[in-house]
UniProtKB/TrEMBL annotation, chain A:
Pfam families: TPR_EMC2 (PF22890). It comes from Gymnopilus junonius. This is ER membrane protein complex subunit 2. Residues 101-191 form the EMC2 TPR-like domain. The lineage of its organism: Eukaryota, Fungi, Dikarya, Basidiomycota, Agaricomycotina. It comes from the Eukaryota.
UniProtKB/TrEMBL annotation, chain B:
It is found in: Membrane. It is a multi-pass membrane protein. Pfam families: EMC3_TMCO1. The lineage of its organism: Eukaryota, Fungi, Dikarya, Basidiomycota, Agaricomycotina. GO terms for cellular component: EMC complex. The EMC seems to be required for efficient folding of proteins in the endoplasmic reticulum (ER). This is ER membrane protein complex subunit 3.
């Protein structure tokens, strides 16, 4: 592989924030060996950061140390290099050592968001969930616009079966990225798990409504299949016993729930109409008719 | 009046020893100033956690309000966030120094005594000085050596209105307006070189001096200083009212989503 194409690929990974560590490492090594860092100029440092992260990711700590040494020589005391050093320490050192390293950095500069986030992730990893949630709440109270943080908080809450809190965290994430259907889908699934079926149904329908490329004649793909399945699950429960489902959020059950159920059945079956789907179709239609 | 072929003949030495040097000196001074300003700029001071929180609290409620008309979250969730924020604003939870004590509002701190604000003011003054001093020197140099020189003839005719702009320093009533005097050439460069600087130094350069003429050094400092002195308590109180307005506007995007989806798939008659 030539140096030029390797560099181009790496730059596009950087731009899109792709975590393709194996590929980055493979191509990064070519660039590193051929001494391309000095030729890259200012971009070379970003490349070194990228290579360090992916090297740690796949466990080639020798390469990571090599890059990290170059970076810390060039930028002593830079917060970005501090973060990298921390990540590198997390790979081998004990969590308590890493935590005290982060504590020290945060004491010097309390508003360093990246270090703060790493610290929270270490706390979660060592099982101090209560401390992690507490810190994460404080972090999000300061840096409200961090969607990643809200999703992480929702994940922690879900893992502790605190679905109501998870929904609240997700609602903040939704406020920040109202254009992202995947956040809506996560909200819907969390609501379904928490037992708030009407709310889940509405949110699944919002996901479907957001997908503008799909209509009657197309086969549902990707996120739509999941959303239609969710819709079907919700509407099946609501059709069979509409009055027994109470909603914590006081979401009303839609009037034409029968129609929605029919539509969902139809759409889910359409999703299984392709070459591969045709074998599973029999199973799906059996499930559809059995539930009533 | 300019019908006679050429009324003046300019010595080519004027071009080589006056016109080009003035232009060159101005360009070089602009580039030099760009680098001096870069040296003078101090790192922005790190904000404490509480200060960041105070600054961003407003953005938080603005995000909430911006989505109110077509909100992605159901009403109970919206109300709980909105209520939480307005309670916090009323109680002053987000203020840097904690909730205010007592009823009397504290006077805004004096920028002269506040070191953080003073820093901002000083850096503004410093850059302003770097802008002003070289311009004054160049103008003095031109006035001293080249006063009353005619440097160049513009290749297009102009109306008499441009006379005061192009022939500053030459008090003749009937010279053609197309002749440009040395002092006017200086001013033309002063206002016109920005495009060239942008080409040489990039978009975000500090070589251009014409835009500093619009602000006095003290006004610049004061404008920078008002920012940290903002009374967040008052802003929060105002934001609280805005939140209440938006609460009334709230409309969940999912409130009639089922009919929209049914219509899209032809299960329900279109609404129109």
């Amino acid at each position: 592989m030539s140096l030029q194409s390797a560099l181009q690929k790496l730059a596009s990974y950087r731009k899109n924030n792709t975590r393709a560590s194996q590929e980055i490492f493979k191509e990064g090594l070519i660039v590193l060996k051929s001494g391309g860092v000095s030729k890259l100029g200012d971009e070379g440092w970003a490349f070194l950061e990228q290579l360090t992260l992916s090297a740690i990711d796949i466990g080639r700590l020798d390469i990571a140390d090599q890059c990290l040494k170059q970076l810390s020589e060039k930028f002593p005391g830079s917060p970005r290099v501090d973060v990298l050093t921390g990540v590198r320490m997390e790979a081998t050192e004990s969590p308590s050592t890493v935590l005290s390293f982060y504590d020290e950095l945060l004491r010097v500069n309390p508003s360093n968001a990246a270090i703060w986030k790493r610290r929270i992730s270490v706390l979660r990893r060592v099982g101090k969930i209560d401390k992690a949630v507490e810190e994460l709440n404080e972090y999000l109270d300061t840096f409200y616009t961090d969607v990643e943080g809200w999703l992480e908080l929702a994940d922690i809450h879900s893992s502790c079966n605190q679905y109501h809190s998870a929904l609240q965290a997700l609602s903040h994430a939704l406020l920040l990225t109202p254009q992202n259907p995947f956040t809506f889908l996560q909200f819907a699934e969390t609501a379904y798990t928490s037992g708030d079926v009407p709310l889940a149904l509405k949110m699944f329908l919002v996901v479907i409504d957001m997908n503008e490329s799909e209509d009657e004649d197309t086969i549902p793909l990707g996120i739509s299949v999941r959303a239609w399945w969710g819709t079907k699950l919700c509407s099946r429960q609501l059709v069979s016993s509409p009055s027994t489902y109470t909603s914590d959020s006081n979401t009303p059950v839609p009037k034409n729930i029968k129609l929605i159920d029919e539509l969902a059945t139809e759409r889910v079956l359409t999703a299984y109409s392709g070459e591969q789907g045709i074998q599973a179709r029999g199973l799906v239609s059996k499930w559809m008719s059995a539930g009533r | 009046m300019s019908n006679n072929a050429v009324s003046l003949y300019l010595d080519p030495q004027i071009r080589d020893w006056v016109l080009f040097p003035i232009t060159l000196v101005m360009i070089l001074v602009g580039i030099l100033r760009h680098y001096v300003v870069m040296l003078l700029q101090t790192q922005p001071k790190e904000l404490s956690r509480a200060a960041v929180r105070e600054q961003r609290a407003l953005a938080r409620s603005q995000i909430l309000r911006a989505t109110a008309g077509n909100s992605p979250i159901p009403r109970p969730f919206y109300i709980s966030i909105s209520q939480h924020l307005s309670d916090a604003f009323a109680a002053g939870t987000y203020l840097k120094d904690g909730p205010p004590k007592g009823d009397n509002p504290s006077p805004p701190p004096n920028p002269i005594t506040d070191p953080a604000a003073m820093d901002g003011m000083m850096s503004g003054m410093k850059t302003q000085m770097v802008m002003m001093v070289p311009q004054m020197i160049i103008m003095g140099w031109i006035n001293f050596f080249f006063q009353g020189f005619v440097l160049i003839k513009l290749p297009f005719p102009l109306t008499l209105g441009f006379k005061s702009m192009l022939q500053r320093g030459i008090e003749t009533p009937d010279m053609d307006v197309r002749w440009v005097s040395s002092l006017s050439w200086y001013f033309l460069n002063f206002f016109g070189l920005n495009g060239l600087y942008r080409l040489i130094l990039g978009d975000d350069n500090s070589a251009d001096s014409s835009r500093d003429m619009t602000t006095s050094p003290f006004a610049g400092g004061a404008a920078a200083a008002t920012n940290p002195v903002q009374d967040y308590n008052k802003l929060f109180k105002a934001e609280k009212d805005n939140l209440e307005f938006s609460e009334g506007l709230h409309n969940w995007v999912g409130s009639d989503v089922e009919s929209r989806v049914l219509r899209k798939y032809g299960k329900l008659a279109p609404a129109y």
